[in-house]
What does this fold into?
Amino acid sequence: MHAPSNNAGPLAGLRVLDLSRFIAGPHCAMQLGDLGADVVKVERTGTGDDTRAFEPQVNGESLYFLVFNRNKRGITLNLRDPRAQDILRRLIAQADVLIENFRPGTMEKMGCGWDELHALNPRLIMARISGYGQLGPLATEPCFDAIAQAATGLMELTGPADGPPTVAGTFVVDYCTALYAAIGVTAALEQRHRSGVGQLVDVSLVGSAMSLLVTAIPAQAMLGQATSRVGNRDRFTAPGDVYRARDGKWVFLLSGSDALFPRIASVMERNDLLSDPRFSTLKDRMVNRAAIESIVAAWVAQHDGDEIVSRARAAEIPGAVVSTIGDVVRNPHWREAEHIVTVKHRTAGEYPMHGLPIRMSDTPASIRDASPTLGEHTEEVFREWLGMGPEQVATLRSEGIL
Amino acid sequence: MHAPSNNAGPLAGLRVLDLSRFIAGPHCAMQLGDLGADVVKVERTGTGDDTRAFEPQVNGESLYFLVFNRNKRGITLNLRDPRAQDILRRLIAQADVLIENFRPGTMEKMGCGWDELHALNPRLIMARISGYGQLGPLATEPCFDAIAQAATGLMELTGPADGPPTVAGTFVVDYCTALYAAIGVTAALEQRHRSGVGQLVDVSLVGSAMSLLVTAIPAQAMLGQATSRVGNRDRFTAPGDVYRARDGKWVFLLSGSDALFPRIASVMERNDLLSDPRFSTLKDRMVNRAAIESIVAAWVAQHDGDEIVSRARAAEIPGAVVSTIGDVVRNPHWREAEHIVTVKHRTAGEYPMHGLPIRMSDTPASIRDASPTLGEHTEEVFREWLGMGPEQVATLRSEGIL
It folds into this structure.
């Protein structure tokens, strides 16, 4: 694995109970685990997290589950059983942090609302992740990443200008919500050093999505400017787009500012463009956008993608070949830089996944373990956190509580 | 403004020096400011952060600058002058956190490499944000959000299946990098309570982008499955897409699982589809995707968007009208829920922007101030942090140091 086993990250010694499913909760808890916390994931007895069933699978393990649950231990609880809810409260009494993304009201139905839990464990920090927040008229509406992208205008901003609104290729809202929640949890840890008590952190998909709109909200409200999708064209300068190279590769080039335009003209050996009145200023190029973009596109089409990018970079023009995932996985640089790392799972075997986004000099984050198999650490956690022996665990299991 | 002025967030009392520009650094520092830290933004004498010049502007203030720099005080320093670099070190000696996103090597040239700063102020936490990280062969290559999207495959995942790779409509990599950096900073605060010393946090655009690829890396490496763009079609089930309604609105509907498909068939009054062998199972519907999507699309086209969504929701089918930014700004719910808030700026006046993504019960985040005008708080900060009088500040200013 990635770091020496005696390494302890900045959150080492903290106990995190992760009741969450899918992405926004699990990715939040995984950050805390990467940073050294002891994260215990609680899953439904029998089937566990729904994402364990998602395709694709390797040796019966879902890749989806593997990439959102490293550095966690796993236990099961049959949370519909009041006896399991009682055990859950005993675990929460031992935890520093609780993370959940049930539909609002579910924790209350299990006797685990914030007031009860705060009374039970005043030092507890509880992160609640939901679609629309814990309160308000929409709180119990189902919501997930694409709904939040649609409802907040984020989807309206993505895609070709003459095509439909487009969902981002990844779960951008889920990921950002996860990260906001992790910030809230760590900030609450700082506050706990002062007050001695924990607090509730309430993070929503729509609130997170709204934070990703750049200038769209004030531009609309103050200036009546409707921000919408523009494909790959730069919103503010021209030329700037994704172009197709001779070898079929897609190339992203941005050379639209008045500083960059002479460079691309020179690289294309088209200094005549600088005296073409259609392209003299940024304003002119924006008016005659189709013309200048088609000139760049025709030039790119005569060369291979890598050649275009190396010529552009030599002229200090921002550019990149658009990598396929195959390109990314085969590029040895990403492994050398540890942006892709190999993790070893007991049944799935060795698999590559993204590395540690947060690098710390003294107490580094680390990948100490792959994701747990279902209920893998139930005995171990019940012994460590609750002082239970294996017979007690066996009894609970036989009674259908675990 | 949003919260009572005597409110103190979980990071109140912490001093943050923000040297960063554009999004990834400023959005990170803004999170710390929202959570109560005293964030002082240092800008270049004369013109300040480049984004102050970005369009659109209101009363001479850039909306771009306004949305990434609330809750900060502003000072200027002419950092090319060694005397300004000396003052910078004196400020850093008083800071808990330093945030920068210069090209790697720039801080070192100013005599502000990590070793110097750690010796100067052992409690300092320094967050360094860059394209490719502080070390390695690509460290000094220019990189920004779209380059990272292109280089890591994120762009390959977004857009129509038969069209070019597409950049996400927002700066998803910049935003996530900002949030990872903020997590690193707050985790380092926790560690500082144990060790008494700060540390370096190194976060990169490519490392952050790589973390957003869901299962693409292991699916490619282990199974040879190339993840690519699929427009708005759900990757795993059918039907599921963005459809155009009679009134021109776009509607996102997801009804492809075996549980959801009978519901959409019923809502469309097309229960005959359930016995159509082309659509009986998820597998069949994936094979005959074009056929089932065109049936749903034709049905949506006969009704208005809001009607479609209300019928879908009544049947517990996830769906939403794709909001334009105009829809979002006009929807009173977002203001009631404080996902859009009004901030008052001295010269730009009142403007709406996104609210607080992180809600905390005891020590809430708050919006205490709009973004600073250039150098607005120089005297105030120099007095509070360095004990300097106004005459000294005036002298430094006359010498071109501020």
Observations:
- The longest helix of chain A spans residues 172-195.
- The CA atoms of residues 14 and 37 of chain A lie 5 Å apart.
